[in-house]
Structure formats: C-alpha cells, structure tokens
Write a structure and sequence with these properties.
The chain is mainly α. It is about 45% helix and about 10% strand. It is elongated. The two termini are about 60 Å apart.
Length: about 140
C-alpha cells in the first residue's frame, strides 16, 4: 500500500526539479507578501520575479470550516464523568444519600462538614484570585 505512493513521489521529483527556473534555483525569494483580500479585490501581481505574493480572502481567514469552529453544546458530547458528577451532586443536595447535608437519614451530618470544607476552599480560591487582581 505504501510502495505505490513512494514510487509516485520518486517519479514526480524530477518533474518538479525541471519546472524550477535555472537562474533562481536554490535561491530564496527576496520578498514575500501576505495579503488579506476584501470582497471584490483581486490578488496583485508580483513586482518582480524574486517576489512571492500570497493572497487569502478576508471572509474566510481561518482554515477550519465555519460549521466546525463552534460546536453547539449537546448532552451527547458530555462525558460520563460529568454526567455522574452532576447526578451525584443533585442527589447530595436533595439529601437522599450519605454525605448529604440534611436532617434526613443517618449520615446527613457527614455531608455538612464536607460542604463547609468545600465552601472554605472556594472562598480561599476567590480570595487568591482577588489578591492577584489587586497587584
């Protein structure tokens, strides 16, 4: 499968070498211009033979097609880890499982301590962010 591809590349190499101008062979261009074209504009010609002009339309400056740039959120693209975490958090808030902070159930107290620790950590992170922003 790879052999025909390599053969085609090796056969095409001499054709590429012949296509190059003998006077400029091995010499880099003196000037390279990169131009964004507005709608209706044409690409300007090179001023001399040692200049390369690269033109791109400004309405599509990105290589990624527009429909793939911003994928809309869909539940199907959400990972199972995030789904389980969301369900776990909802059940903890409702007080139906151990580790929830509620008066319902025998293990409701354990979640209150955990909730206080999480709140403390969030406040500490916010204080650090605020301190960095003040400098």
């Amino acid at each position: 499968m790879l052999r025909p591809f390599i053969t085609a590349v090796l056969l095409a190499l001499p054709a590429v070498a012949v296509a190059q101008d003998a006077a400029t062979q091995g010499q880099p261009p003196e000037r390279i211009r990169s131009i964004l074209l507005k709608p209706g504009e044409k690409c300007p010609p090179a001023a001399n033979e040692n200049e390369v002009v690269v033109c791109a339309p400004s309405e599509t400056p990105y290589r990624i097609p527009r429909q793939f740039r911003q994928a809309p959120y869909s539940p199907a693209s959400n990972s199972w880890v995030n789904r389980v975490e969301a369900i776990d958090q909802v059940s903890r808030v409702n007080g139906a499982v151990p580790g929830s902070c509620s008066v319902v159930g025998s293990a409701g107290f354990s979640g209150c301590v955990q909730q206080m620790i999480q709140n403390w950590a969030a406040e500490r992170r916010q204080a650090k962010k605020d301190a960095v922003g003040e400098r």
